[in-house]
């Protein structure tokens, strides 16, 4: 039967330094493992969130492109319809003018007088101008003495006039037309210029 001293029994009960170190190392490893697992889960969640945001952004982009494409198609269709409606409004009144031409061409010219022929032409001309007026066309025909307007008039000739102030219209050679503020064709006019004084005329004669 073996006998042990009290010191030997105490040594068995006291943990060794090696076992304490191993325990601390194991605890440290477990802590680091838990932190890594937590970081991995956070990273996975972040990746998932980023993928979801990417998918949402792509979906919004595709929706925006589709909306823009639909807008372009509607705008193009509206423009086409507006042009067609404008053309219809412009052409419809002219059909009456064509009817008058057909009526005039169907007449027996041997039975028409010159006055009747001129009257028929004037009637067709008036109908045509009335048709143009329905589209917003207005006549530009300045009166004598009206100031020259370079935006609506085109000076074709100049003439000294004792009755019309210089820079004013003497007479209209050809009327112009406008639609709203847009001039389709300026009126061709003759404008007055400075007339020579008697002294200038005599000086010119002496020269």
Instruction: Tell me the Rg in angstroms.
Output: 51 Å
- How would you describe the shape? elongated
Low-confidence stretches: none
Helix proportion range: 55-70%
Strand-pairing-aware structural class: alpha+beta
End-to-end gap: 168 Å
Major sheet size, sense and barrel closure:
3 strands, antiparallel
* H and E order: HHHEEEEEEH
Rounded average pLDDT: 82
CATH superfamily of the domain at 139-206: Head domain of nucleotide exchange factor GrpE
User: Per CATH, which architecture of the domain at 139-206?
Assistant: Roll
Counting DSSP H or I runs of 4 or more residues, the number of helices is: 4
Text of the CATH class of the domain at 139-206: Mainly Beta
Biggest sheet: strand arrangement: 1-4-5
Beta fraction of the residues? 15-25%
Total beta strands = 6
CATH topology of the domain at 139-206: the name is Nucleotide Exchange Factor Grpe, Chain A, domain 2
Describe the structure.
By secondary structure, the protein is an alpha+beta fold. It has a domain at 139-206: Roll (Nucleotide Exchange Factor Grpe, Chain A, domain 2). The chain is built from four helices and six strands; from the N terminus they run H-H-H-E-E-E-E-E-E-H. The strands form two sheets. A three-stranded antiparallel β-sheet has the order 1-4-5. The protein has a three-stranded mixed β-sheet with strand order 2-6-3, with no helix packed on it. Helix 2 (17-105) packs antiparallel against helix 3. The model has no long low-confidence stretch (mean pLDDT 82).
